[in-house]
Amino acid sequence: MLVGHFAAGFAGKAVDSRAPLWSYLSASQTLDLAWAPLIIAGVEVARVDADLPGSPIHLDYMPFTHSLPAAVLWTALVIGLARLFKLPWRPSIVLGAVVFSHWILDLIVHRPDLDLWFGGPRVGLGMWDIPVPAATLEIGLLGAAVIVWAVFRSRMGMSTRSAVGIFTLLIGIQLLSQLATPPENVKLLAATTLTLNLIVLAVGWWIDRPKARATAEQGTTG
């Protein structure tokens, strides 16, 4: 799953808006934001197999980012960082829930490559092996979450055009990932994934930048 993870970020922002949008989007991809550098460094191991349906990645070894204990630790780390930066408990917990949602969604689509514990049995329901339902789930989750977030923005007096724009960007990324020939080098694939995620985070920051929030707040109080 690629862009579907961002659904949790948009939903989190609608649940508690006190954390910026980019932080929720980043939380939704925390495991992959850590995974890509570790793949590039050779700490975690994956292979590209263009014959695999749904996703061309064979994930051999990723205990530090995608095992269940790692997901719990990354969740706790993000909550701790949020509190360190003086974010109240409620949005901090929401951020943590968004982080952990990544593992839950991966459990649905991944083949059995997610460790239940370090060195333990691997799980995954394998929805990637039926690509059309997997893609439908991913786009459906994203679309529903963006709609919820857009409604929230509308009620706050903010424009919904940014919701349309970022949804269009994410659908473009999804289509690119499904239709383009994957690179044979898994490190290049990881670098590409990281770059695309960072682009989305930058767009999320721009949409929810302090100046834009201040303008919206003035509009609702004026």
Question: Keywords, please?
Answer:
222 residues; mainly alpha; two-stranded antiparallel sheet; 9 helices; globular
Descriptive report:
The protein is mainly α. It has one domain. The protein is built from 9 helices and 4 strands; from the N terminus they run αααββααββαααα. The protein has a two-stranded antiparallel ribbon. It has a two-stranded antiparallel sheet with strand order 3-4. The radius of gyration is 18 Å and the shape is globular. The N and C termini lie far apart (42 Å).
Write the layout of secondary structure elements.
Elements (H helix, E strand, L loop, with lengths): L5 H10 L5 H8 L1 H12 L3 E4 L8 E5 L6 H17 L4 H21 L4 E2 L6 E2 L7 H25 L5 H19 L6 H22 L2 H12 L1
Antiparallel strand pairs: 1-2, 3-4
Helix pairs in contact: 1-2, 1-5, 1-6, 2-5, 2-8, 3-8, 4-5, 6-7, 7-8
